[in-house]
Amino acid sequence: MLQPCVFLMNKVFHDAAAALFDIRDHATLMLGGFGLCGIPENAIHALVQKGVKGLTCISNNAGVDDFGLGLLLQTRQIKKMLASYVGENAEFERQLLSGELEVELIPQGTLATRIQMAGMGIPAFFTPAGYGTEVAEGKEVRAFNGKHYLMELALQADFAIVKAWKGDTMGNLVFRQTTRNFSTAMARAGQVTIAEVEELVQPGELDPNHIHVPGIYVHRIFKGAAYEKRIEKRTVAMAQ
């Protein structure tokens, strides 16, 4: 009688450098996070150390001058940015205005949906966002029920790099509060998904009802360390 064969891939890597071993020059990367919340800090530092160049980075924003994706901008490793908000990074502004950096600004909802569509295997969709603006240049326009819509393509990436609160060795991920943001969609959209986690546990230790990204989407996972978790902009009220 034939016995069932179970193949379990070892997804656990020692650190960020090991998990990012095959990222080469000119790769397209999705990097999770919203502002500085939930960004893959260890992976970004590893990319800086690796020295890969000509990267196309898809992220909600471009970090700040000395943290997050701002570190890759400082070292001129990013060739093109696709983002929805870039207002906190002076180096980004300088490179954009000097023509050193290619930039595609995308309405935030459109960016999120383009990533979601990639994860769902849907090549394109129609949205009213951006119609009649520079965003619409070169894009197909159709009318539905008397309203104009732009056709937007799903975003593809060679690698999706995200940071979760907890994960198990099978790649199941749990995010904490705002850190879910773009990361859960990106984890489903990369050809290879790499997750760094604050806490790495064994299978069965995570409540299945609380898992935000099933392990089937995650190819590599490692336990991060020394997280700074900076606040992008602190606003305080004057004492009365």
What does this structure look like?
Helix content is 20%, strand content 26%. With 240 residues, it is an alpha/beta fold. It has one domain (16-223): Glutaconate Coenzyme A-transferase, CATH 3.40.1080.10. Strands 1, 2, 3, 4, 8, 9, 10 and 11 form an eight-stranded mixed beta sheet that branches. The protein has a three-stranded antiparallel beta sheet with strand order 5-7-6. A hairpin with a 4-residue loop joins strand 8 and strand 9. Helix 5 packs parallel to helix 6. It is globular.
Task: Give a short summary of the structure.
The protein is of the alpha/beta class and 240 residues long. Helix content is 20%, strand content 26%.
Poorly predicted regions are none
Largest sheet: 8 strands, mixed
β-sheet strand percentage: 25-35%
CATH homologous superfamily placement: Glutaconate Coenzyme A-transferase
> What is the radius of gyration?
19 Å
Structural class: alpha/beta
- The count of β-strands is 11
Q: What's the number of structural domains?
A: 1
Euclidean distance between termini CA atoms: 80 Å
CATH topology name: Glutaconate Coenzyme A-transferase
Name of the CATH first level? Alpha Beta
CATH architecture: 3-Layer(aba) Sandwich
Task: Count up the helices.
Answer: 6
- pLDDT averaged residue by residue: 92
InterPro entries: 3-oxoacid_CoA-transf_A (IPR012792), CoA_trans_fam_I (IPR004165), NagB/RpiA_transferase-like (IPR037171)
Protein name: 3-oxoacid CoA-transferase subunit A
Keywords: Transferase
GO molecular function: succinyl-CoA:3-oxo-acid CoA-transferase activity
